[in-house]
Amino acid sequence: MRLLLVEDEKNLAGALSGILKKEGYDTDVSFDGSSGLDNALSGIYDVIILDRMLPSMNGIDVLKEIRRAGLSTPVILLTAIDGVGERITGLDAGADDYLAKPFSTGELLARIRSLLRRKTKEMREGTEISAGGIRFDPGLLLVFCCGKEIRLTFKEGRLLELLLLNKGDCIPKDRIFDKVWGFNTDSEISIVEIYIHHLRKKLPAADCGIVIETIRGIGYRLTETG
């Protein structure tokens, strides 16, 4: 799971980021509202943790822009200002949860888990994505093909979902890298080629009715073969 933490207090951001990564979450950090919004609009995050008071653009305005863009990514709003009125403002702007500073990291982790459980449930109840002879369930990370179930890893699933949603279109390699691996990652862009290779091995065209084409010098395209 990939999280975005938008927090301008660098000591707090560093501590929280370390805890989240230790818990197994891929975590990107932004230190101001403008860069936080840019990252959030990529649509690659499972949960966004957003501070209320930020330089360049405050958290409420960031949140409103996220919702205006049509993104339903769960957002936990952090604030040093407690009170009913402040909570109403945050929730009305589109926050899914609210946490007043100071807070325990245990409570933050519990709220993240709660939002992720809800999101996973919604995904499992959502519509499968299909092409050729396959059906893909992004919540279960399962591909159904020729009566078989093929399980994917999280990154493989995100990659296949991106290709399926853009079926027939060439997706630049750098866009795939940003969408699946995020901006603050230690991985190199060449990892895209490795995961494309993984998908091709798991989803042979002869059985699945699809092919993942390499568009030399640009990126990749998923097309139907039948």
Give a written overview of the molecule.
A hairpin with a 2-residue loop joins strand 8 and strand 9. It is built from nine helices and twelve strands. It starts with a strand and ends with a strand. It has two domains: 2-123, 3-Layer(aba) Sandwich (Rossmann fold), CATH 3.40.50.2300; 129-224, Winged helix-like DNA-binding domain superfamily/Winged helix DNA-binding domain (Arc Repressor Mutant, subunit A, Orthogonal Bundle). It has 226 residues and is α/β, with parallel strands linked by helices. The mean pLDDT is 88. Helix 2 packs parallel to helix 3, helix 6 (154-165) crosses helix 7 and helix 6 (154-165) packs across helix 8 (191-202). The strands form three sheets. The chain has a five-stranded parallel β-sheet with strand order 2-1-3-4-5, sandwiched between helices. Strands 6-7-8-9 form a four-stranded antiparallel β-sheet, with helices on one face.
